[in-house]
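Slide 14.
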Amino acid sequence: MILHIDMDAFFASIEQAVNPKLKGKPLIVGSRNNRLHTVVCAASYEAKALGIDSGMPSLEAFKLCPNLEFVVADQSKYIWTSEQIFELLKAYGFETIYSSIDEFQLDISEAEDPQGLAKTIQKQIYENFNITASIGIAKNCILSKLASKLNKPNGIAILTHENLEWTLAKVPAKKLCGIGIQTEAIFDSLGIKTCLDLYLKSPQFLESILGQNGLNLYMALHSKDSFNAMQKESEVKSVGHSYTLPRVSENTGFIRAWIRLLSEMVARRLRQKNIAAKTVHLWLSGPEMAHFGAQKSYKEPTDDSHEVYLRALKIMATGGQKTLKIRALGLTCSNLFPANRLLLLKEEKRREALIKTLDSINTKLGDWTIYPAVITLAKKNS
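Slide 15: predicted structure.
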C-alpha cells in the first residue's frame, strides 16, 4: 500500500500559519509584489470558496473579494517547510520519497493500521507546522495520489479492493494525474467519462489510442508494486525533485531560476548522503510541448549545485527548449558514486570549502538562510 500526502493550499496555509492574523481570511499568494498586476500562485480555502484559485489574475481575484488579503510568494520559506516535513515523515521508518514540493509518498505495505498511521501523520504535521494535509491510501502511487484529493481539506481516503470501483465510478477521468486537455478530449469522444471507465479498459485498447503512453497508464493504474524502483536509503539510485508551476510560464529567467532552485535541493541531498552523480536528467512539460525529457552523463561526478544547474541548462539547450511555455519541470541525478574524489586544483579546493561553509550555515541557522541570488527570480518574476 502507498500512502500519499498532499498538503492543503500549501503556500497560503504556510502564510496563515506564520501570520495568525491571516487565519480564517480569504488570502492569495502573488508571484510578485504588485498586488493588482500579478497572478495568483496559491489561494487559501477561504478564497477558493469565493471562486478564486491558482492561475487567476490578481485583479480579477480582488474584484471577487475586495477585502482579499495579499502576500508575496516566498519560495525559500515553502521549500524549507517542505524539507522539514520530509524529514518528519522519514522518521516513521517507511520508504519515503518526494512527489513534489507539497506532496510526499510512503510505502506502508508493512503498516498494521494504515488509517491510524494517516491520522497520526496529520496530527504531527499540524502540531509542528500548524498546517493541514490530506492523505490517500491505495495499492499504487497514481491511485493513492487520486485518493488524497477526494476528501480535501484535512481528509483521509482509503481505496480498497472492496470500494475501489465504486469510488472510481464517481470521479471524472480528467481528475487522474497525467490526463491533460488533449487526452481528456480523446477519452470523451470514446465515452470514457469516469476513472472507472478508464480503469476497466484493456491494455490493448489503451495502447491503440495512446501508444506506449496508454500501456504506461494501464500499468500505473493496475500495478500492485511499491514505489517504481523503490530503493532503500543505503541503495539510492537517483535523487530528484519536481515542481508544478501555479500557471504556464514562458519567462526564460523564471524557468532557469526554478531549475537552479531544484539543482540546489537535489545537490544538497546528494551531499547529505555523501554521494555524487555523473548523470543529470531534466524534464519539462507544457501545453505546446507535451513532455520533454533528456539526460546527459559526464565523466566526473558532482554534488555541486551550480555544476548540476549548468549541466541541466546544457540539456535544455541541446533539446532546443528555450522559449516554449512551461507548466512543470523536474531534475534528477543518477549514476551515483561515493563523494570521495581527490581535489588537486586550488580553485576546486576553494569551491569545496565554500560549499561546506554554506551547508554548515544552513544546517545551523535553517535551510535557505543563504542561497543563490538567481533563485529570487522564482519569487519575483512571472
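Speaker note: The chain has three domains: 1-140+149-157, 161-230, 234-380.
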